[in-house]
Amino acid sequence: MTVKSLIELVGTHTQLMVEMGDFAEILHWGLPVKGNRDNSRLALQRPVPYGRLDNDVAMTLSPELGRGVFSSPGLEGHRNGQDWAPVFVITQITPQEEGTVIVSEDTKAGLRLTTELFLDAFDVVKTRHTLTNLKAGAYQVNRLANTLPLPARANELMTFYGRWVKEFQTERQALPQGGYQQENRRGRTSHEHYPALVAGTAHFNEMQGDVWGFHFAWSGNHRLRVDVKADGRRVMQAEVIYLPGEVSLQQGESLTTPWLYASYSHQGLNGMSHQFHSHVRRSILPREFAQKPRPIHLNTWEGIYFDHDPDYIMAMATQAADMGVERFIIDDGWFKGRNGDKAGLGDWFLDREKYPQGLAPVVAHVNALGMEFGLWFEPEMINKDSDLFRTHPDWLLAVDGYDQPTGRNQYVIDLQNNAAFNFLFERLDHFLSQYNIAYIKWDMNREVVQPGHLGQAAAHQQTQRYYQLVDKVRAKHPKVEIESCAAGGGRIDFEVLKRTHRFWASDNNDALERQTIQRGMSYFFPPEVMGSHIGASHCHSTRRRHSIAFRGLTALCGHMGIELDPVKESAEEKQGFEHYIKLHKMLRPLLHGGRTWRVPTDDQAHQVHAVVANDLSEAVVLVAQLAMPTHALSGHLRIPGLDPQATYRITVLDKPSNYDDIVNYQPPWTESGCELTGDWCESVGLTMPILDAETAMLIKCEKID
Question: Is the dihedral of CA 622, 626, 628, 634 positive or negative?
Fold first, then answer.
């Protein structure tokens, strides 16, 4: 038997103990612990019950059927029916900064598995596998999964679901037996099954409980599962869904899984989010991101749709600049043949009928107003009513002989076709080289059906080629920022974020719906990457109407923008836009650099969001009244994360226009302010005011000693 050793990876608040022998097994993932390691390992050795295999079977970093693991294995594949149950043995362990690389081989099956496992200072684990075929004969890979263990006390899940204009919804469920599985086969990250979940102890919440959060950094088809084995052990797996015949490795070829990111916190969901946010800010976002404040946007889509008139657009830009907008983006409708959503995609040439003087005067006008200029593209898509399709019908991502359904009246271009790939890069490069374009809104409005290249399944490689196209654009134009949009929140994950600077969280600008959408997104993403716009008073997605105050405060805490036609808005509305833009700019360093807290409330009709400065010198608290108060009084507002020994001045920065008209009188502190210790704010709190449904108020805390 191989002599076993122990490797310890230590973050700031987390420890991984990994036992190495023939295989690698995580013995402990949680708070750092002290003590004699031989005794610790002895304490964790499992009994072997009757009626089962006669030896203990470990849950390794890649569970193997050949070792007697009867749950989902880490690898499924074969070589013409052979080598289908490999057993890997560690041959090399290489320590790395913040982690280790483990090489294992099965010489009989002719396979090598390289496992990377890291734990950073922000307590975020990341792991992935690389499978290499070492011998002659193609090896067909059906599954290759990342696997991490969970303790027996992880008996509850929080998962994500959604749809177009209703992304990032959450669901809670017990995990007593069996398990949970979600699959996404839509060809992109998807609105329906965002690739993340949280496991935790019973009744974990924002402030309390042991939680283990998982995010699978992949922008295509995926499967997430949490299994409860018959013996009670728990394991989480994340993997790409490979379509039939999609991955076949010739001798010497390799396949690498996407990264699985995970983080443990003993301080509930807020603690988990703080760790993910810190990791994203330091390790995932492009480096130039932190050096520049996030510009306030105006996007033209809900203002003019396909009705483009350069003079009118320049008038929109003038009024946008007057309100304090810093980046002006022309959305869909600017290119040849694009007068609706049934034609034109693929023909990335300026529409000379709409823009007889070209695009240069508009760009120059926007820049002269002190704003950056941005332009919308949807490079991966094509309409059949386009010159591109009429010239190159073979560029469709499809299987010949089938008539696949349209989505948004469009189809997908096969990025694995080099001619198509190069054409799209040339078109993007043309506009980025010819005009002073600082920003691309990169959209993808269609789910992928029957993704075929040369008759073979090709969903996995299509996603890889998307990454390569973005990488090539960024390499040629490193100063251009990119927003990832897929009919709103359909392509939001860490792997996209390595290449982009912002996500469009949802096509829904309804402030009430956005409260839930933005909260769901906040579990894994910091606010500065979340596009959050003030829409028109009459929401285009839900037909609801909201005050400028509720819309403005809801958009305040993300990457702020406006989505409308300022020319048509009333003077009162424009004053409101200007007010919230100024407020956002004043608070932007705090909002985009501080620590976000989702604050528990006494009444579920409330939703409270706080951001506390890293030095604890200040904080802002957004109180949203989502529905009518449950009771006549609304309980107390408790503000976490402040310096418990310091005193803070508490004042109201913004409140509804009818704030004083709906009660005999509101709590006096909301009028005169008050001074409280951070300890009092967190433990006792302040009496909540009474608010109408679908309104909000903003509170400021400033340290005074």
Answer: negative
* Catalytic residue (choose from 443, 493, 510, 654): 443
DSSP letters along 331-375, please?
Answer: -S--BTT-SSTTS-TT--SB-TTT-TT-SHHHHHHHHHTT-EEEE
Q: How far apart (Å, rounded) are the C-alpha atoms in residues 503 and 528?
A: 9
Which residues does 57 contact at the CB level (< 8 Å), separation at least 6?
Answer: 67, 68, 69
619-644 tens-digit pLDDT: 999 999 999 999 999 999 999 999 99
- Is 331 considered catalytic here? no
**For this structure, is 443 an active site residue?**
yes
**Catalytic site residue from 507, 510, 565, 654:** 507
pLDDT digits (tens, 9 = 90+) for 584-624: 999 999 999 999 999 999 999 999 999 999 999 999 999 99
Report the C-alpha gap between 640 and 701 in whole angstroms: 11
∠ Cα 244 250 251 (to 5°): 150
Structure tokens at 57: 């079977």
CA distance between the termini of the chain: 63
Does pTM top 0.90 for this prediction? Answer: yes
Question: Taking the CA atoms of the chain, what radius of gyration do you get in angstroms?
Answer: 27
Phi, psi of 471, deg, nearest 5: -60, -40
- Distance between CA atoms of residues 50 and 57, nearest Å: 14
700 to 559, 644, 686: CA distances (angstroms): 19, 16, 13
The residue to which tokens 């919804």 are assigned: 169
DSSP 8-state symbol, 386: S
Return d(Cα 601, Cα 172) in angstroms, integer: 18
C-alpha pair distances (Å), 624 with each of 152, 375, 513, 697: 37, 33, 12, 7
